[in-house]
Backbone:
């Protein structure tokens, strides 16, 4: 629960925090002063990675104190105020389902992209609930699920030699207060804005657009993101 | 057929050319020097609108000669080198099916967004073929279907007081030469680029993202578009 606290005060948990997307979000948010709990199935490995992330975030923050701690997913889900789910789609439903109890009453930010690969490249996987975010919402009836952080290149997030990022975070969801919080959190990433981009039922295309960005990356040897114009 | 000609040489037909999106694309492309055939079911109404578009394009082009002619969809489809389909989704399948013969051998650019409205706002309509562009491809087996021009605000396209637009055109398709042509055509819109954004099977989310831009527009009182970063 955020209890009306400013976003700077919130402890942010990252489920799947040892993957590139989770690590990248963690290091940038930690460098911006956000307290971070990195979660993984393997708590020991996660503590080691959390220490590395903390070291890199401290350096990026010019030596300022940062807070990154590792732990098991279930403990992170219980201790954090707001939780980002950054797991591969293959494990998404099971991991989310197991965490329903500790995630109750919290904002859960889903950044998962249901994506498969074949000889023609990447393609969108159909999700019975419509999207990964809607699947999370169905499995977490007592949480407030928001979709965000799909279009951010993990490579650029982790490349701290570039202090500023370029792009926007499209945020989808149905609860205005939760959206405001997640947009403010996105705005803590240097150079980025959190942009309201519609209801949760329109999450699918936001998630799947990441697949088109994969094609952009291959064609242009880029780490593409999205900027919303005229806002 | 484009026969290897430069994009500037191509006569561009716009099916549904009397709607806001078709008219907006037509006036901007005409002002950039593209020869345009505006198509509609009602050829007489279309001739009147073509004359208005020509007048506005001439003014935007600083008095340079422009070429905009109106006609029936079937005649436009037959006479143009490349055809943009800018019709409401409700009429999409029928209109495209009827034009299969005159469109054979041509590049067909589909910019249709399958979108419905209810009390919660806009939502994506499921298309049996996956997307409007894939539907067009299924109905036009002898044409080369490309998806593009979804994220452009008709209001901004028609607002010639702003000489430059801000945003990119995401282009999806399976034929490299056709993609190159459509990207080059998109690049004729002032301030815009045509960006390769993957295969036709990944058209759905490009189309449907327009629905999220509708939400952005309502929230921010904007005419939102998309810019692809790091390209």
Residues:
């Amino acid at each position: 629960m955020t209890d009306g606290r400013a976003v700077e005060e919130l402890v942010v948990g990252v489920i799947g925090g040892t993957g590139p997307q989770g690590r990248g979000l963690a290091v940038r948010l930690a460098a911006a002063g956000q307290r971070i709990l990195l979660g993984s199935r393997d708590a020991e490995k996660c503590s080691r990675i959390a220490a590395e992330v903390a070291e890199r975030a401290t350096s990026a923050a010019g030596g300022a104190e940062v807070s990154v701690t590792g732990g098991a997913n279930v403990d992170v889900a219980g201790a954090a105020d707001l939780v980002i789910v950054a797991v591969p789609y293959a494990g998404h439903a099971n991991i989310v389902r197991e965490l329903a109890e500790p995630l109750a009453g919290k904002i859960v930010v889903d950044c998962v992209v249901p994506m498969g690969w074949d000889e023609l490249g990447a393609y969108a996987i159909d999700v019975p609930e419509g999207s990964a975010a809607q699947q999370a919402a169905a499995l977490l009836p007592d949480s407030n699920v928001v979709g965000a952080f799909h279009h951010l290149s993990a490579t650029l997030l982790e490349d701290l030699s570039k202090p500023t990022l370029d792009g926007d975070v499209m945020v989808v969801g149905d609860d205005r207060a939760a959206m405001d919080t997640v947009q403010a959190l996105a705005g803590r990433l240097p150079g980025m804005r959190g942009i309201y981009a519609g209801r949760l039922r329109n999450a699918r295309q936001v998630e799947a657009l990441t697949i088109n960005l994969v094609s952009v990356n291959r064609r242009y040897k880029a780490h593409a993101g999205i900027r919303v114009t005229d806002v």
